[in-house]
Design brief:
The protein is built from eleven helices and eight strands. The protein is α/β, with parallel strands linked by helices. Helix 5 packs parallel to helix 10. InterPro entries: Glyco_trans_2-like (IPR001173), Nucleotide-diphossugar_trans (IPR029044), Trfase_2_rSAM/seldom_assoc (IPR026461).
């Protein structure tokens, strides 16, 4: 058994959750546990999770950051891995994470997200999101970039040692978006943030809903405004939930 706990925050994710959980059953080595923290879904999300045999926790507070923190509080693994319900991971996920964290100078990391849908792969958006992990910290926090900061986002499957995660305070449960990038800013005090050279597949549902140009514009604007200090609470209005 591995030392990795996977934490999945959910809210009405019935459409994609079963597939995500099926992928987790073939991991070699297997994870220590999978924890679903549900924010009050009105669809079949909870039923799907229960049928899959994973632990389901009712969120005390709705919101990805708060739900992931709640999962981290009860997780028993030495390593925490935060996974979105619409993201598929490689079957050697656990080994890759554990090998990355063998380096004690690395506090956490994430993967390269390839945004895919039923009919297409969003190569342009995926490439921009990959490059953004580097150019955003170089542009807005250059001193931290040279200390090892890479800005990671939710669909990149962020992981960290449980001790380092709590030492920096975990996610800020008061912010509605950019909680992963905010965590990276805090986690880099414990060590480098590593962008692993492996792919995870994330749903393209936002790009499919918005269209390429609108999606790219929103991602750029939110990233830039956050980088210069605009509050995530204000920015959330431009980032609608898409299911």
């Amino acid at each position: 058994m591995s030392s990795v706990s996977i934490i999945i925050p959910t809210l009405n994710e019935a459409e994609c959750l079963a597939r995500t959980l099926r992928h987790l059953t073939i991991l070699v080595p297997p994870v220590q546990e999978v924890l679903i923290v549900d924010g009050g879904s009105s669809d079949e999300t909870v039923t799907i999770a229960q049928k899959a045999g994973v632990s389901v926790i009712a969120a005390k507070k709705r919101g990805r950051a708060a739900q992931m923190n709640q999962g981290a509080e009860v997780a028993t693994g030495e390593i925490l891995c935060f996974l979105h319900a619409d993201t598929l991971v490689p079957d050697d996920l656990v080994a890759v994470i554990e090998q990355t964290l063998v380096d004690k100078t690395v506090a956490g990391g994430g993967f390269i997200s390839l945004m895919t849908g039923d009919r297409t792969t969003r190569w342009g958006v995926s490439l921009h999101n990959f490059v953004k992990s580097y150019y955003a910290p170089l542009l807005f926090r250059p001193h931290l970039f040279f200390q090892g900061l890479r800005l990671l986002f939710g669909d990149q499957v962020i992981f960290a040692r449980r001790a380092d995660f709590w030492k920096c305070g975990g996610f800020d449960s008061n912010i509605p978006i950019m909680e992963e990038a905010d965590l990276c800013l805090k986690l880099v005090r414990q060590g480098k943030i590593r962008l692993v050279n492996r792919i995870v597949q994330s749903s393209d549902r936002r790009v499919a809903h918005w269209g390429f140009f609108k999606a790219t514009g929103i991602y750029l604007a939110i990233g830039f405004l956050w980088g210069i200090g605009v509050s995530p609470q204000y920015l959330k209005q431009f980032y609608e939930d898409v299911r």
